[in-house]
Amino acid sequence: MENSVLATPSQAKVERDPVKTVILASMIGTAIEFFDFYAYGTASAAYFPKVFFPQMTPFLATIVSLLTFGVAFVARPVGSFVFGHFGDRLGRKKTLVLSLLVMGVATVTIGFIPGYATVGVGGALLLCICRFVQGVGLGGEWSGAVLVATENAPKNRRALYGAFPEVGAPIGFFLCNSLFYLLENWLTPAQMTAWGWRVPFWASSVLVVIGLYVRRRLQETPLFKMALESKRVTKAPLKVVFKSNWREILKGTFITAACYALFCILTTWTIAYATTALGFSHAEVLLFLVGAIVEFAVLILLTSVLADRVGRKKVLLTASIALAVFALGFPYLIQGQHNVVGMLIYLCLGFIIMGSLYGPVGAVLPELFPTKVRYSGAGIAYSLAAVVGASIAPSMTTWLISRYGLPAAGYYMFALAILSVLAWLLTNETKEVDYTK
Known about the structure:
It is a single chain. By secondary structure, the chain is mainly alpha-helical. It has 18 helices and two strands. The chain has helices at 19-46, 48-51, 58-89, 92-110, 116-119, 121-150, 158-186, 189-194, 199-216, 222-229, 237-244, 246-276, 282-310, 312-329, 340-367, 374-389, 393-404, 411-425; strands at residues 5-7, 13-15. Strands 1-2 form a two-stranded antiparallel sheet. Helix 3 (58-89) runs antiparallel to helix 17 (393-404) and helix 12 runs parallel beside helix 14. It is globular. The model is unreliable at 1-14 (pLDDT under 50).
């Protein structure tokens, strides 16, 4: 496929990367991000309570372990500030390579941290430090990936191109959960607790090397080159974005926060709750999730194509309303011991909504911001959404159930879904915005 070109204001021609290069480079980083995300989420729900917090009661160990899961989300805004600053000043490519390297090193290191039996509470401290560094890397990853995709996209296909990195999420999920599922079937429970949980973290190194190789072959995005030519690159993107685009940051945060909460509840919380309260084995839940992830990927692509045709607002507002209904109803689907039918319906409906929410976001958040602060703005909004929606969602859901019973499991997600609806009601359609400005 030949490179396409984009006219600059000076009528020069700026080459785009081939579509296949854009797809691979944007997708692989997000796949690695979510591979690492799922690895930590699964381990924190199933193994970390015994490995790092055996001195606590099982319930308290689970709560604390899930809180360490949230450390990376708190760190993400830091990564967004740092990588967004350099991404808007120096370019998308260099920043993407560095964020992937930071994230990859932290993830692999987690696989080598000794447990409580060896170093006491020091293991949990090291775990939190690595998780924080991982979060910093993640804070610069997503926004850079979607900009590589959308800033190379034709105007009428920005949502579809923005879905390329989003599809990396189910790919990372599938690879990680499949690996955990195989390990669960090959190893004994004692072996999984002793060392088996570490294998996915080590395996991440292979994906990181591939990702670095692909991204180093990228060109800078044509829109950033245009900004450089016309001297529209700002020296202080963070100052500019918070002064001029703070409303867009708030809108983007609450548009996305509910999606994050749903994601963490469907994955991390489901593993923890189903294996402790509902009578499912780890292998069973992982198999259910691997199956559900296929529809997640399909819905990301379908809703992104739809968003290019009818607009982002109609698709995402409808999905946010559906999430509010789902949040109040899903606890009734999973009642009873080993309720396979209820669990499958819960996951099926949940991932349909998740795919519908997650797909078009890859176009929406960048479209809220001008080119000179797009990396910073989209990254900050996405990272703050992770703090609000994901950092405490699993532990909050566990606490709500302990306090008010299973029907209360969706209250936190319901509140975020309502905020998402309100944010969309205050946001104009972004499909036709001039992305070159």
